[in-house]
Amino acid sequence: MSKKIIFTSAAPAPIGPYSQAVMVGDTLYVSGQIPIDPATGALVNGTIEDEARQVMLNIGAILKEAGLDFTNVVKTGIFLKDMNNFAKVNEVYGQFFTDQYPARETVEVARLPKDVNVEISVIAVKD
């Protein structure tokens, strides 16, 4: 098994003992991303839409570093602090996909790292 660690300064550095992403063969596993601005290292404060957008931008930067983009994403996991934000997060999320949407689950959780409102992870496959 060939395993390659993917890292980019265009996304937040890991805050624990994990990688931003790991490429195994043609499959990329992207760790859950939270709304941290990689330029400042600060949490994005604002609306849930602002948070979701930053999460998706972080994911996009990691995908790009691996030579992929959102069209390569086959599976996502969305973790919400409050399921009442589902529609707002879904609207932002949908702006990053045009068709052939990935499989997905969305769950409400009791707490997320740094007490953020949303975290998203993805799996992508090279064409």
UniProtKB/TrEMBL annotation:
GO terms for molecular function: deaminase activity. Pfam families: Ribonuc_L-PSP. One of its GO terms (cellular component) is cytosol. Belongs to the RutC family. This is RidA family protein. It comes from Runella rosea. The lineage of its organism: Bacteria, Pseudomonadati, Bacteroidota, Cytophagia, Cytophagales.
